[in-house]
Amino acid sequence: MNGEPRMEAGPLSSAIFRVARVHKALAGRLLREHGLHPGQELVMMTLWQDGPQRQVDLAETLDSDAATMTRGIARLERAGLVRRTRSTTDRRAVIVEATEESQGLKRLVGEAWAELERATRGGMSPARVEAARELLAELEANVTAVYRGDDASAGPERSG
């Protein structure tokens, strides 16, 4: 054995879990160098790209629950990277925006993500990378359908 747990009942799920775990660990290492935790870079990249937005929309865009997003935004705010303000048109809504101070991180986060992408791709050809992306999208769709209760597509194995 090569250190992998024996998961005969779920070899694909086990493989996905292992890849996700080590991928997140590497992302964490690369981001910690810049004072960020995994997931925070996604918030920042979204704000840098799309500009200020309602916190609820940011959570939806990043497929995060409200409590997790609130905690993450609070940490980023304490670090001086984002600012939260009440919407002038809807006092219930909180607007989140990247601060000027965060702009210095933009290049560093981009470099960290580029390094993560290089490490993930390894020596894979562009065709294999695209095939992997397609396979991962199919796996995501399968799991999402079952998670949402629409498991008609998750019946017996399909040929392919």
From TrEMBL:
InterPro entries referenced in this protein's UniProt entry, alphabetically: HTH_MarR-typ, MarR/SlyA-like, Tscrpt_reg_MarR-type_CS, WH-like_DNA-bd_sf, WH_DNA-bd_sf
The HTH marR-type domain, residue ranges: 9-141
Keywords: DNA-binding, Transcription, Transcription regulation
Alphabetized Pfam families for the sequence: MarR (PF01047)
PANTHER family assigned to the protein according to its UniProt record, in alphabetical order: TRANSCRIPTIONAL REGULATOR SLYA (PTHR33164:SF64), TRANSCRIPTIONAL REGULATOR, MARR FAMILY (PTHR33164)
Protein name: HTH marR-type domain-containing protein
Organism of provenance: Nocardioides luteus
